[in-house]
């Protein structure tokens, strides 16, 4: 399909003549996974705001609340970031891949533990 601003090619995904491209799949997975973590963090923050009656708006990684609620929203944002990233996210992902696709190596993310430890120590203001 060709228009004035773009050309679009429709492919039938079930057609075996168009198998998935492993290189594209490998390069697309990490940013999509990180995006899923970012969106999970946003939703957890939004849920905390909702429980506290704070109107909350977000676009991508930009969180908004009324000025009088910023300190509380920031507190929720930090708490949820630490809670999310204190989980064994990469290990769980590696286990999922291993269970479903065969053995994959997993290495402990020491830097991730350092970041969450640092964030816990930051003052709330």
UniProtKB/TrEMBL annotation:
GO CC annotations on file: mitochondrial DNA-directed RNA polymerase complex
Q: What is its EC number?
A: 2.7.7.6
Q: Where is the DNA-directed RNA polymerase C-terminal domain?
A: 3-108
Gene Ontology biological process terms from the UniProt entry: mitochondrial transcription
Database matches in SUPFAM superfamilies: DNA/RNA polymerases
Q: What class of enzyme is it?
A: transferase
Keywords recorded for this protein, A-Z: DNA-directed RNA polymerase, Nucleotidyltransferase, Transcription, Transferase
Name any one Pfam family assigned in the record: RNA_pol
Catalysed reaction(s)?
RNA(n) + a ribonucleoside 5'-triphosphate = RNA(n+1) + diphosphate
Which GO terms of the molecular function aspect are on file? DNA-directed RNA polymerase activity; mitochondrial promoter sequence-specific DNA binding
Keyword Transcription attached: yes
Instruction: Look up keyword Oxidoreductase and say if it applies.
Output: no
Family classification: Belongs to the phage and mitochondrial RNA polymerase family.
This chain belongs to the protein called DNA-directed RNA polymerase
């Amino acid at each position: 399909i060709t228009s004035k601003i773009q050309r679009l090619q429709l492919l039938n995904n079930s057609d075996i003549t168009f198998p998935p491209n492993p290189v594209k799949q490998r390069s697309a997975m990490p940013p999509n996974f990180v995006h899923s973590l970012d969106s999970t963090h946003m939703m957890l923050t939004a849920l905390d705001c909702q429980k506290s009656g704070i109107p909350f708006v977000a676009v991508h990684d930009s969180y908004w609340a009324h000025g009088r609620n910023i300190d509380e929203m920031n507190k929720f944002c930090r708490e949820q970031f630490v809670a999310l990233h204190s989980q064994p996210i990469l290990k769980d992902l590696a286990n999922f891949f291993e269970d479903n696709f065969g053995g994959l190596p997993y290495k402990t993310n020491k830097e991730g533990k350092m970041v969450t430890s640092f964030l816990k120590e930051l003052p709330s203001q």
